[in-house]
Amino acid sequence: MSTQPKWEELSSPIEMRGVTFKNRMMRSGMYEGMATERGEVTPELEDWIARQAAGGAACIFPGYTNVCLPRCMPYQAGSYSDSHIPGLTKLAEIIHSHGAVAGLQLAAAGRQANPNLFFSDAEAVMGPSAMGPSPLYQAACREMTEAEIWQAVEDQAAAAARAKEAGFDIVLPNAAHGYMLAQFLSPHTNMRTDAWGGTPEKRFKFFEETFRAVREAVGPEMLVWTKISVEEPWDDGINLDEAKIFIPEVAKLVDAIEISGGTIVDNVFMMTRGEIPIGTLRKGIGGSVEGISAELVDVLYGIRDSVKFEEAYWYDHALALKPLCGDTPLILTGGHKYPATMNQIIKEGTADMLSLARVLAAEPDFPNEVVAGREDPGKCSSCNKCLVEVVLGNKLQCFLPEPGYTHA
Predict the structure, then answer these.
(1) Domain ranges in the chain?
(2) CA atoms of 298 and 108, how far apart (whole Å)
(3) Closest Cα partner for 272 from 183, 356, 392, 171?
(4) Whole-number Å distance between alpha carbons of 144 and 152
(5) CA distance 145 to 246
(6) Which three-class secondary structure state does DSSP give residue 226?
(7) Which CATH number among 3.40.640.10, 3.20.20.70, 3.30.200.20, 3.30.1330.10 corresponds to the domain 29-307+317-322?
(8) CA-to-CA separations, 133 to 137, 270, 298, in angstroms, rounded
(9) pLDDT in tens, 24-65
């Protein structure tokens, strides 16, 4: 005699474009720092993704891949060269072997490029508009030319084609967290007055051209998702009102929308709310991340109350934006720890799937245990040491002391 799972809605399958997801939990593209300098997949990265995939999430995204040079982070997997396809193929095969759907996240650094990671003088920090040095990398950004903008569109499409060749089911160009797609959407970083900026419609042009090119590159059957910022750490950046303008247009171009917020180089803790590990940050002073200074640490200490952990901290944004998505599923990330709350979000229809990152770094088996009826919250303490360590160039790991929490 079969019984319904305790968390029925969270454990239920969902189908998109003929692809079935066994439950409503997915592993977000959390950066691991385990690739080679040139972006090739390593056995260590394969092992990490295998452990994540075995944990029961319906869909696994490895950490985001760089569609072009320069890079934002060291030891970041690449999708900018055909030489990356064999390693990416192995990751897709590993994910599929555990019954999960395989997704690949694509990103271009733009103004978030780290000059200390340049391979040649041909690389440049550039974005929609010229800007002063970023807080984290202390690198000024120059304005992209028309030709460079169209090349950036092609870079995303070419990377998407490589993801398809590697066997991934989903390709997700990242329009969140301050990467290039987000830079064009944001009025803070896009101050152009040509066809690519000046109004919300013109700021949306780069996103639209990119996703049309990606769809053409992968064909009509492959799932195309996006992750998009709905809040940024500036008064003149993307906010909920801005998001309400572009989300209906985004929904026409993609098969699912994952919402998030914050940026890497300005306020990373906005996207990973919790503690600010001051001592870990101080270890980076004088290292390869130019902006980590005693002054920056003091500034971050001053904003600690504004980034405190809250359960499902983008929930209110999802509540406002879900009705604007039409039939396009909305995926909610950020602060999912309590199974009862997670199930309620799916049950009430505020989101169609939930995206997990830090909680799975701490407990890869969390989805399996939730499906089996677990009521206890995820054990991730939101200490954010995992986040800061990868920014400093170290490998992703959980710092909770209890045995069994870290990957071995």
Answers:
(1) 29-307+317-322
(2) 30
(3) 356
(4) 10
(5) 24
(6) strand
(7) 3.20.20.70
(8) 7, 20, 18
(9) 999 999 999 999 999 999 999 999 999 999 999 999 999 999
